[in-house]
Amino acid sequence: MTHYDVAVVGAGPAGMSAAIESARWGFSTVLFDEQAAPGGQIYRAVEHASPQMLGVLGDDYASGKSLVAEFRDSGAVYLPGATVWNIGSELQINFSRLGTSSEVSAGSLIVASGAVERPTPMPGWTLPGVVTAGACQILLKAHGLIDDNVIFIGSGPLLWLISSQMIVAGRKPTAIVETVPLARYGVALRKLSLDLTAIKYLRKGAAMMWAAKRAGVPIYRDAREIAIEGTGRAEAVSFHANGQYHRLEASLFALHQGVVPNQQITRLLQCEHEWNQHQRCFVPVLDSYGEESVSNVFVVGDGAGIGGAKVAALQGRRAAKRIAQRAGEEVGTELADLQTRLSREMTIRPFLETLYAPSAAVVAPADTTTVCRCEEMTAGQIRQAVDIGVPGPNQVKSLLRSGMGPCQGRMCGLAVAEIIAQRQGGSPCGADYYRIRPPLKPLPLSELASFNGASTDSSQVQGAPSHD
Ligand SMILES: Cc1cc2nc3c(=O)[nH]c(=O)nc-3n(C[C@H](O)[C@H](O)[C@H](O)COP(=O)(O)OP(=O)(O)OC[C@H]3O[C@@H](n4cnc5c(N)ncnc54)[C@H](O)[C@@H]3O)c2cc1C
Known about the structure:
alpha/beta
């Protein structure tokens, strides 16, 4: 079986930076990513983006070009289109690529699998014509596609970023229905650090909001009692804002309530997790270098807790430097310098996490609202299960099948944990989540049948010189 000193999962800013740094220290390094090209979420398809597209998506996006180029030149083995579906306790990594599953092993693992958009259960969200704001951006980044009759519903920096990118592309959204309670702006401003870096982020956000206002996009603030309406497909959104009832029609409704760590790999590895009340999500418990309770496993980037692209890149480098330090390399002050830069980049978080906490309606959906889309389980059915004494998500799963569908609980895990905890009068704790088992993503049975562990198909991976 091919062995690498360092394996990285994810080619976003965190993973690419980790692989670049790891290869720089002479470690044999392999990086797996399920996408066809490097870039992750933020720098998706940046390598071949036209000057026009770079203009539409902005400087932050364009800055990904140099990172991708550095990664390509790093000497790390890069496996695009490779989905990691299992990781063994000895860090044997099973991945599927080009219809074949293979296995390699690694001395250290850097999990840089990023974030996912927070599921937003609400009435009508399962209707055709309802997508996430991130999906709109993926269509724009990867395919240059924009639906110009879309209403954005929810809250968070990404929602304003996508609408401002659409405006630059000459296609403004039909409306923005924001769910942030007006009073929360005051509370959040009190959490704003006057650090230069934080002010820079604040100015970027304000510019995006101003772009929507200047383009004449109707913006509804403090929206509540939101429901997507339609027969057979989404036709309109109804809600109350400023004491008034509104019903807006459109062809596409894009939901967004922020992003949360993608926990699939860290839960599979049974790493320790804790509930982060500020980000209202589960985060892995890490030491100050990003190492997990499972040794030689590092979690970096938004998968470690939401910090954004710059933080992701710094954390990626930090993990690889830490592995180098462990291997006896002289890293000098490089680690301390990184920690300083990281804390500076994080100064804006308290403000953002307060302002863009998910709306109460999404965290505690109405009884009739579907929470598990795969098995069509409603919030009410989960509450009833708790009322008859079902203690936690895994027992709810056994009883109701929620979390057993093709998404493996990605869409309902967080909501189910919150609904159960609330019904029990508390908030979720680290263990309150589905047990995640392989395969992490659906895999053809034939591929699983023809995969028997160590007999790796050498055409899948290149031989790897070891560090020593
Ligand atoms: C849809 C979406 C759009 C976003 N757009 C922006 C934006 O425009 N600007 C911005 O500042 N922030 C954006 N963000 C926030 C984004 O999370 C961060 O800015 C940044 O991309 C985080 O970097 P990362 O390296 O941690 O993870 P990511 O960039 O998310 O990269 C993680 C990579 O891991 C891959 N992966 C995950 N699991 C597996 C697996 N099992 N096997 C193989 N590969 C796997 C993913 O496909 C992805 O390519 C977006 C987030 C989302 C969810």
